[in-house]
Design a protein that fits this description.
With 196 residues, the protein is mainly alpha-helical. Helix content is 68%, strand content 0%.
Length: 196
């Protein structure tokens, strides 16, 4: 017997609640597909109606009803009659699935005219001032470095040379370049730490 959820009509409409509990029991113990079909035809339209009254569109309500009854099929053995009726249990499953669906949906928000305004790409004045102060301190520190250390730092950062290229340009061993660079870094680090 096929009944559309859209019509909401079912020949089982007069069934009592104990009969619903019996259908759930048959689903839980025997995985009775006939009992499941009867339960779906009886309760499905009511669940869809509840979802539509809560604001779901018909398509979404149908999907939630399908998910609800899939949960009923998988978890029928968890129904406990002493805690409430079958209808209440199924409605609770449907309500929770609808809430989960709403939480997953991203609400649409219309942008006003302000979205056309773009933030400036320029740094904030405070950031510019701080960067300028750091550059000035760094220049002062570089000027106080011994000539050989200052030279390797300037070749590395101003000209972008590697340690090997600096060694070739200055005709000194690579280890010497690395030593001078390490000494210069330590002096720069110590001087900047003292200044802050």
């Amino acid at each position: 017997m096929q009944v559309s959820l859209a019509t909401g009509r079912s020949p089982f409409a007069a069934q009592s609640r104990p009969e619903l509990a019996a259908l759930i029991a048959r689903i839980a113990t025997h995985r009775d597909r006939g009992a499941f079909a009867d339960l779906f035809q009886l309760v499905g339209p009511q669940v869809k109606g509840m979802l539509v009254r809560q604001g779901a569109d018909h398509g979404t309500a149908e999907e939630i009803v399908q998910d609800t009854f899939l949960t009923v099929w998988r978890k029928a053995e968890l129904f406990v009659a002493s805690r409430g009726s079958v209808i209440t249990w199924i409605y609770t499953i449907a309500r929770n699935l609808r809430i989960d669906r709403i939480r997953r949906e991203v609400p649409w928000q219309e942008l006003g005219q302000d979205h056309l305004e773009q933030a400036s790409g320029e740094p904030l004045q405070d950031d510019q001032l701080a960067a300028t102060q750091i550059q000035e301190r760094l220049r002062c520190v570089l000027d106080t470095l011994p000539t050989d250390q200052g030279e390797v730092v300037r070749l590395a950062y101003d000209e972008g040379l590697s340690h090997g290229e600096i060694a070739d340009r200055l005709a000194i061993p690579l280890g010497t370049v690395k030593s001078r660079m390490r000494l210069a870094y330590q002096k720069i680090k110590d001087s900047l730490a003292d200044a802050s």
